[in-house]
Amino acid sequence: MEKIAIIGGGNLGSAIARGLVHTKACDPQMIHVTRRRAQLLAPLAGFGVITGSNNLEAVKSAKIVFLAVKPYQMKDLLAEISPAIAGDAVLISLATGIDNKTLLELSGGKNAVFRAMPNTAVAIGQSMTCLASLNATPDQDEKVKALFEQLGTVQFIPEELMAGATVLAACGIAFALRFIRAATQGGIEIGFGSELALKIASQTVKGAAHLLIEGGTHPEAEIDKVTTPRGITISGLNEMEHQGFSSSLIKGLMASYQKIENGSKQQK
Ligand SMILES: NC(=O)C1=CN([C@@H]2O[C@H](COP(=O)(O)OP(=O)(O)OC[C@H]3O[C@@H](n4cnc5c(N)ncnc54)[C@H](O)[C@@H]3O)[C@@H](O)[C@H]2O)C=CC1
Ligand SMILES: O=C(O)[C@@H]1CCC=N1
């Protein structure tokens, strides 16, 4: 089994480590996670994962190196660790807005580089992960795809769509959760206790998603099955649309997307 280094054990880096352990994708002792305040990695250490703050130690002999730091921290990090990374290791960056060409340059040009955009559901093996690679062999592409397949669903996409994938999949978790919270608030106003309202709203969203994923249908086809003519669903749906429901979601997505685009332009 190959050693995996996760540099930057914050929200996403830790979620990936938890996912690798949770899904039994690899032996916890083969995962080495670092962050500056290593004591905050104690929960991962409790699962048997190796933790610390020594990046050079973590990448030594690792064949898969996750770069899970903030975008502005990437340049200094790669300057520090690149000389210690084996030539046949694959680098997987999770940073928003740093393209593969830049990653390849910053890392010295010898490694296969990947941009991966998972989301925090990676911690329970339910991520939607988009991938784009540079300087990778077909075997390396397959290896990284197979790794993420153990953590959810994977799709290679053209690199220019990575910003869009960030918004739809990574930010999307927050957008979907805000819907669930709002539905819960409505349920409480109607009379449910908060825990029960949350349980009903969460399972309802899970069921809706599974209708699409397992049935391969379009949302409107499923909506048609719920909207009884002159019924109550269509009244609620139409009122939501009068209040700008779909429009506000699309505008929110575009505001997030625009922020990535503006940030990328500033970096150039
Ligand atoms: N949170 C999310 O849902 C997603 C985040 N991302 C991307 O993943 C990256 C990480 O995001 P988060 O986990 O949310 O940030 P975070 O701030 O929670 O984690 C970053 C971690 O890196 C550590 N770090 C910084 N410099 C370091 C260094 N030189 N050596 C070792 N560790 C170092 C920090 O101590 C921190 O623990 C970002 O680039 C973000 O754009 C991508 C998809 C989803
Ligand atoms: O909000 C952010 O900037 C990061 C990138 C995608 C999800 N979280």
Automatic annotation (TrEMBL):
Keyword Nucleotide-binding (UniProt)? no
- Subcellular location per the Swiss-Prot or TrEMBL entry: Cytoplasm
**Gene Ontology CC, one term:** cytoplasm
Which InterPro entries does the entry link to? Answer: 6-PGluconate_DH-like_C_sf, NAD(P)-bd_dom_sf, P5C_Rdtase_cat_N, P5CR_dimer, Pyrroline-COOH_reductase
Annotated GO biological processes are:
L-proline biosynthetic process
Q: Which UniProt keywords apply?
A: Amino-acid biosynthesis, Cytoplasm, NADP, Oxidoreductase, Proline biosynthesis
Q: Name one GO molecular function term.
A: pyrroline-5-carboxylate reductase activity
Chief site of localization = cytoplasm
Name the NCBIfam families for this protein: proC
Descriptive protein name: Pyrroline-5-carboxylate reductase
Organism in which the protein naturally occurs: Alkalitalea saponilacus
